[in-house]
Every structure is written in C-alpha cells, then in structure tokens.
C-alpha cells in the first residue's frame, strides 16, 4: 500500500500500469489505485481477466498475447511486481515526468535509460503503520483480501513450484497445524 500512496504518490485521475495484477500485492494495488480515483491498467494472463476486472482494473493486457509497451503509453505511474526485463521495459510506457516503483528488482530500483522519468524503490517497512492502513482500507470497503491457496507444511515443495511459475492468483499460505 505504501508503494502506491507514499512512494508513487498516486493521485485521482492519473493513469497507472500495475504489472502482474493477479498477484497478491498487485491485486491490493489495483484496489487502492481505484479507491484513490486513478485509471488502472494491468497485465495478466487471459485466465485472470475476470479476476482483475473484479478488483477494479479498467484495462487489461494479456501479457501472453500483447507486448504491454505496444499497448500502453503516457502513464503517470507504473508499479512493477515482476522485475527483470519487465521492470526495465516499464519505463517505456511512462510519460515525461512519470514515476515507477519497483518491488521485485532487488534493493535498488532499476536505472531508466530515460532522464525524464523517476525510478523508485519503496522502503520495506516492518511496523504497525502499513498494517493499520490495510485494516483501515479493508474496514472502509476499499480493499478485500486476495485469493488464498492453502498448503500443508508437508506440501512446501508443491507450493514453491507454483510460486516459481508465477502463474497463480493472490497469495500462498501454509497451514502449520
């Protein structure tokens, strides 16, 4: 949540591209961006279009069928949860003065090849404030929890394989007892 509100400082009527909208963090970001009043574009596979639309996405790009850099332009902001090549290519969709926040690219944000955009790395806060903000948004009806896939601890290898595939919705949770 802090990446959208505090790092990107997303405003009403701005346009944001949220990479991998079906993921747990990106799913929250879609909902928060809509709550703020932004226009939300997201990337996901065709199987997740209905899911991200229900979260509030205005426009959906099937990353298996279209290159997002050819489908989107002039975004005020990008929130990248994928990293790698997707992170670097995300700068292409920003308008001059645009800003991008990266949470999957390591401790530092990737460096843009353009001098007219800003790359940001949200701080990783481990305090009460971010959690209290999520509770506040949940109670206000602005966000709902992501889909959760439960695993027994004995199924950790299966959960890890699914996580590495990057083709699942929401969050993976282990039941310890």
How would you sum up this structure, described in words?
The chain is an alpha/beta fold and 177 residues long. It folds into two domains: 2-120, NAD(P)-binding Rossmann-like Domain (Rossmann fold, 3-Layer(aba) Sandwich), CATH 3.40.50.720; 147-177, no CATH class. It has seven helices and eight strands, in the order H-E-H-E-H-E-H-E-H-E-E-H-E-H-E. It has helices at residues 2-7, 24-36, 49-55, 68-71, 84-90, 128-139, 156-165; strands spanning 15-18, 39-44, 59-62, 75-80, 94-102, 118-120, 148-152, 171-175. The strands form two sheets. A six-stranded parallel sheet has the order 3-2-1-4-5-6, sandwiched between helices. The two termini are 30 Å apart. 33% of the residues are buried. The mean pLDDT is 91.
What structural class should be given to the helix and strand makeup? alpha/beta
The CATH homologous superfamily of the largest domain: NAD(P)-binding Rossmann-like Domain
Q: Which CATH-level-2 architecture of the largest domain?
A: 3-Layer(aba) Sandwich
Low-confidence stretches: none
- Overall body shape: globular
**Count of strand segments:** 8
Rounded Rg:
16 Å
Count of individual domains: 2
- CATH class category label of the largest domain: Alpha Beta
Q: What is the H-and-E element order?
A: HEHEHEHEHEEHEHE
Strand content: 15-25%
Spatial arrangement of strands, main beta sheet: 3-2-1-4-5-6
**What number is the mean pLDDT?**
91
Q: Summarize the amount of helix as a percent range.
A: 25-40%
């Amino acid at each position: 949540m802090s990446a959208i509100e505090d790092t990107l400082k997303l405003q009403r009527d701005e346009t944001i591209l949220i990479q991998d909208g079906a993921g747990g963090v990106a799913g929250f970001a879609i909902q928060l961006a809509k709550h703020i009043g932004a226009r939300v574009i997201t990337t996901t596979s065709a199987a997740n279009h209905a899911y991200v639309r229900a979260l509030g996405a205005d426009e959906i790009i099937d990353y298996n069928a279209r290159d997002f850099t050819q489908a989107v332009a002039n975004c005020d902001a990008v929130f990248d949860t994928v990293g790698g090549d997707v992170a670097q290519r995300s700068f292409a969709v920003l308008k001059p003065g645009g800003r991008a926040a990266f949470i999957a690219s390591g401790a530092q944000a990737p460096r843009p090849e353009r001098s007219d955009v800003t790359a940001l790395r949200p701080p990783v806060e481990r305090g009460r404030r971010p959690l209290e903000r999520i509770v506040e948004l949940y109670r206000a009806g602005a966000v709902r929890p992501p889909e959760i896939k439960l695993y027994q601890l004995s199924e950790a290898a299966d959960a890890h394989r699914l996580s590495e595939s990057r083709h699942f919705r929401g969050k993976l949770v282990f039941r310890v007892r």
